[in-house]
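Job type: complex structure
Entries:
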Amino acid sequence: MTVAASTHFRSFLDELARSQSGRILHQELGRRWPETADELNMIARYALLPAGKLLRPIMALHAAEAVGGDPAKVLTAALGLEYLHVATLVHDDIIDADELRRGRPSVPSQFGVPNAIVTGDHLIFNAFGAIVDDPQAAPAQLAAAVAVLAETGRDLCRGQLLEGRLAGELAASTRHYPEMIRLKTGSLFRAVCQIGALLGGAEPELAAGLGRYGEHVGLAFQIRDDLLAYVATSEQTGKPATSDLDNGRPTLPLLLAYQAATDSQQLELDVLLRGRGGGEAGLEWVSELLAETGAVAATRERMKLHAEHALAELAVLPASASVDVLAGIAHWTTSDES
Amino acid sequence: MTVAASTHFRSFLDELARSQSGRILHQELGRRWPETADELNMIARYALLPAGKLLRPIMALHAAEAVGGDPAKVLTAALGLEYLHVATLVHDDIIDADELRRGRPSVPSQFGVPNAIVTGDHLIFNAFGAIVDDPQAAPAQLAAAVAVLAETGRDLCRGQLLEGRLAGELAASTRHYPEMIRLKTGSLFRAVCQIGALLGGAEPELAAGLGRYGEHVGLAFQIRDDLLAYVATSEQTGKPATSDLDNGRPTLPLLLAYQAATDSQQLELDVLLRGRGGGEAGLEWVSELLAETGAVAATRERMKLHAEHALAELAVLPASASVDVLAGIAHWTTSDES
């Protein structure tokens, strides 16, 4: 699959999930988390399956292959990165009291908070277990991969707290938003690519370069998601259109609009974000403000910048189908697809 | 400090905490978690300090030294094992809605459930980070240690769920109690000693032997704790005397009494455990039943058996001060000290 061809499909990520690596990951995930009467594995299975698009483990496999490694040997670790991602979703759903996840009751909503806490922990432990699972891997690379995953886990925790503190705070968020999305989203994408490369046999320096690629993709991915909340329909994003406003999330489009807004518009934005978002009328007013202040265009510029930084990190790698896929993912982050 | 001398002191564990390794661990813990304005580290510090008796990291250091390793090089990893222990306490306090821990408000009670979830996760990630922190360690031993810690984490989750399911269920618990305390307590003590030995340079087989020592000590430790709830005062145990009954915990003393009890006594025990424990009167009746049925003596026998198994695992090691300390801990589990 070439990137040029793939971008013609309706959804690049759907196509990626149906690619060979995506299909193998889906199959293995189902095989490793079978239906069971065991309560803990049953809840973990509910959290993991049906799987999302498995973008992170797919990227890990391609990062391994891009540096000359055998993706089959990185399969378990790649799934481990999905376990960590899902663990954070399970714990986040408790913290945010979110009742729905991927169109079904969230884990805390379906199984209660105590089970959700334990299941999230269980998935974290499984993530680390998966990283060191390959008995044939070079131990030094396993240890380096564990160190990256531990550091990323700490970043995710820090991002979770920072996000909570910034809710409703537009003025304070301008300074902290880049750090917040780096911790919350960039860090795990970085780890995914860095660990994939390490376990694929890359030297630390090359793996760090793939990590920087991953971080920029993650940042573009998050900014894209933040923008779609205002320019896409709820059918496209899969969540209520007013969700970000309702939750007072000071995302980049809002921050850029805030900076360009008049004093009275700033005041109105502050009130909206600290209140309950103002419903559909509030959303309409904000969407108009974003267009009027040029915040939509400025946000897209920021996405493109991260995508370009990501692509630049790939330049050191020899041409291969996997590098094409990684480049395609960077391109996709700046596309209009939902 | 010889074991023979130490057992004359008021409390062996207090003495151990004041030993050289205990003092170094206390100092390092305070140094690595200083007072800070950073919210996440501040809550983690609250959870970790003032420290308990640091029995687990002390055992890790002595396990490393017992196999010929340098305990100074295992210090960070030993503290990591304490982080994992405290992480489980923080998450357990949410699950059990416990408002007090070590005589102070518990983390969820002091900082709220969301912060407690994130802080527990943060401590888990720090535990794994600490294990792979030594750049001079043999990578194969680091990877093996991470695998042990991940497996133990999964055991702890499984033990937490099993304990919840068995609450109030005396008849069902007879079969599951050994597995439950193995998962809940034995597993982490096993990991502590196995990881200490691995990072001290032991071959996997020798490290596994120290792991079995640790598991038996952990089981004796847990059974001892379960017995003290009925034969010690609340001043000695540091928790309300009726706590285990109130929470319907089907511990070994109760299970042994249940097996030896008459039908009507069994019925009364069932009612007590499924209700709210019957307060002081309930406790008095149960304590008498334990003595009358020989359950106290039988429980002590089980503790002794585990202590003997633990001591037997130490027989392969050359004599050293650290082996003496490890043996002393096994002996202590069968003592009457609180």
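Summary: The interface with chain A takes residues 39-40, 91, 94-95, 113-115, 117-122, 124-126, 128-129, 131-133, 138-140, 142-143, 146-147, 149-151, 153-154, 156-158, 160-161, 164-165 of chain B (CB under 8 Å). Strands of chain B lie at 100-101, 104-105.
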